[in-house]
Design brief:
The complex is a heterodimer of chains A (about 400) and B (about 475). Chain A has about 400 residues and is of the alpha/beta class. Chain A has one domain. Chain A is about 20% helix and about 40% strand. Chain A is built from nine helices and 19 strands. The longest helix of chain A has 15 residues, at about 365-375. The radius of gyration of chain A is 20 Å and the shape is globular. Helix content of chain B is about 25%, strand content about 35%. Chain B has helices at about 40-45, 50-65, 105-115, 115-125, 145, 155-160, 165, 180-190, 420-430, 435-450, 455-470; strands at about 30, 90, 125-130, 135-140, 150-155, 195, 205-210, 220, 225-230, 235-240, 250, 255-260, 265-270, 275-285, 290-300, 305, 310-315, 320-330, 335-340, 350-355, 360-370, 380-390, 395-405, 410-420. In chain B, a hairpin with a 2-residue loop joins strand 3 and strand 4 (about 135-140). Classes of the chains: A alpha/beta (about 400), B alpha/beta (about 475). The interface of A and B includes residues 317, 324, 338, 341 and 343 of A.
Chain lengths: ~400, ~475
Amino acid sequence: MKRGLAEDVARAAREAFPEIPFPGGKDEYWRFSDREAWGANAVFPFFMAQIGHVGSADFDAFERRFCSMSDSLAVCDGVEIFADFDSSKIEVCALSEAAEKYPENFESLYSGSRGKFDILPATRAGCGLYIKVKAGVRARLNMFECSKLPLSISAAVFDVGEGASLALLRKTAVYGGSFRATRASFLLAEGAKLECASFSFGGLPARKYAREDFRLGAGAQVLDAYAELGEEETRIERNFALCAPNASVDSRVFSAARGAVARDIRTSQEHLCPDCRSNVAVRTALYDDSKLAFSGLIRVEEAAQRTDAYLSSRSLLMSDAAKAQVSPILEICANDVSCSHGCTVAKPDEEQLFYMRSRGLDLPEAKRLIVEGFAESSFSHIADEALRSSLGEHANLF
Amino acid sequence: MDLEGEKRDLEGISLGRNVGDFSYAEDYAYDAGEGLSEEVVRYISARKKEDPWVLEFRLKALKEFFRKENPTHWASKKLDELDFSKIRYYLAKGAGKKRSWDEVPDDVKKTFERLGVPEQERAFLAGVEAQFDSESAYSNMKDYLAKDGVIFVDSSEGLKEYPEIFRRYFGRVVPIGDNKYSALNSAVFSGGSFIYVPKGVKVKQPLQAYFRINAARFGQFERTLIIADEGAELMYMEGCTAPRFETGTLHSAVVELVALKGAKIQYVTVQNWSNNVFNLVTKRGVAEEDAQIRWIDCNIGSGLTMKYPAVVLKGARARGEVVSIALANSGQHQDTGAKMIHLADSTASNILSKSVSIGRGRASYRGLVHMPKSAKNCRNNTECDALLINANSRTDTYPAIICSGSGNSVQHEASVSKLSQEQIFYMRQRGLSEKEAMSLAVNGFVNDLVKEFPLEYSVELKRLIDLEMEGSVG
């Protein structure tokens, strides 16, 4: 098989990778992280070496279930292990193949790889899947992704054709001992619609880096909910580029952190064209001595008049030792816009707790309800019933 | 004598953008020359006949200044346009400081008369200090304050005459190495006010300082230290102007406030530098138990302003507040903000910021709110509103919030809007011209914050906003 482009990208990234240092404790003190400790250097470039994985009964159950569902696709360390979907609507091929078929989209997936983390997935360019939803169809896909290797690298492109719509349910399980580094790009053509509910789980001690770039064409729409419910350390980047008029994004992240993990969340809403709307909301519940570092950016270019953009961040400190550092940023270069951000960091509201306790709930139950409300509000905007109710399965985790 | 600029309306205080645009010929008896070196620092220190510890402080700061990089990795690249080797760090006529306007040299006196300083002093101020380039030219205070033990002098006199009071706090609130520009100020500072208000004394009328740059390619580095002893209260106001020279001018001040138990300090700034001034200022206050510090800040002038007034809330129940208005017209970048560091229980802070960007102007808010878990029941509220007048105006908001521990809460809100077409339409229907309607709308936008300024200033601020709006229509 010819693997020209993919190999070129991978070779260049492999050469660049050792030259760039991981951000150390000092560089990223603001984010509480010492990424050297993630140990990627030790296993690079021999991803397959080292020990096996620390499993979890839950993860195995997910895997079994997804491998027996319809409209489903299961991927392990970037390799397809199970597929059962309507191929008249969805076309799936390996990324290495897609490099030849859709070279532009392939390149855009890895373009802009500068930092250590960005470049890591590019070192195995071609590993992963290209998922194309044909123009004009309504498709559904349930996707299970797991990481078992010590350094698990993969990528995915979701290419939603003109006027098509995709309802996507994703569950990601990172087994303990694994470091998962992924990039994904969501390309929405004119009038395309994506509804997506994602759940991320990890064992101890798992690490996860995920960068997801969304590019929206004219009139395209994204309704997205992302929940982090596991015990893994994470660093996620979610970038929304509104590249043509009338595109709209409503993306919400819910993250519950327990133990001593640090969650690092970065979002950006880039408005390049007029008449677009975006809303990003990040809600977190921080237990024990967990920490959150969140930075969000709304950038409105001069051409993007009549933009409507909102960014909100609400953090609940569930313990005395929990800590949140947030920085929601606005950069506005056009005047006919309505942009705002709001952010709060506080413990659960006393009045709400009092109200619930006066109705007979005990304190832990009342607190649990508040967090559950947080999580539910992160999924309430999803129209697709099956996706919206997918949160219910995990209610035991709050 | 070379006089430029427009005639001033002598009726009241005038803050018009052109009012400071005049200069007198330079005839300085003491000039440290261009560029920065150890000799310059020694020259300034010798000229001021300072104690050895002050010189040592200056030299240490100079080393720190050379060691530190310009913070262009986060701040404006415009900082790199500053050429430290082309700036003159000390200029003085050598006439000394006077207690009566009659003794002040003629051209200096005329400068301040044109700016209306003596009139304001008669009308509503408790004391005035006027600084011309590096040195204070005039300083006076109403007699009744001296009887109460209030000290209001310039920094050189403060260090020399009252070391037992000022040395204890000098450089403690803003340490030498806080940032590159605080190090620069610590090395070459000259002028500025030293104020001490004794226990329980409440200064009813404001004290004022007026800073004037007269010479081109000059750097003004005033150093202000204000100490309000237990239960004391005061309001301090500062105004700044400079003529419009061809070349850039640097103003880099350090202001330290200390509010002891139960004290209240209000610090009002109206910054109206000409558009080629780099205004890089470090302002910080420490509030002890039950004390209150308010920064009321208005930035209209300068090419680049970087100023983030801070309050360290060190004692229980201390309060900090920043009220900030910024107007950025074409060619200006107002990078302003606030920092609130909560170190004690039940401390509260409030930040209100409004900015207006006109033409290609850029207004940025940069803020920090810090609550460690050692502090309990702290509250912060931050509101930033930005108004954009033209299609290519720009505004940014860069807040950083660090909060831990239960019982602490932070709220931050920011919004960006443009002038409402409906409002303008309504006002035009009532017979206002488009310009009048826009001015009125902008004044309405900042009105609630303008009210925080002393009355004499708030009237003028409104007029100044009208002037800034000129030429922005269409």
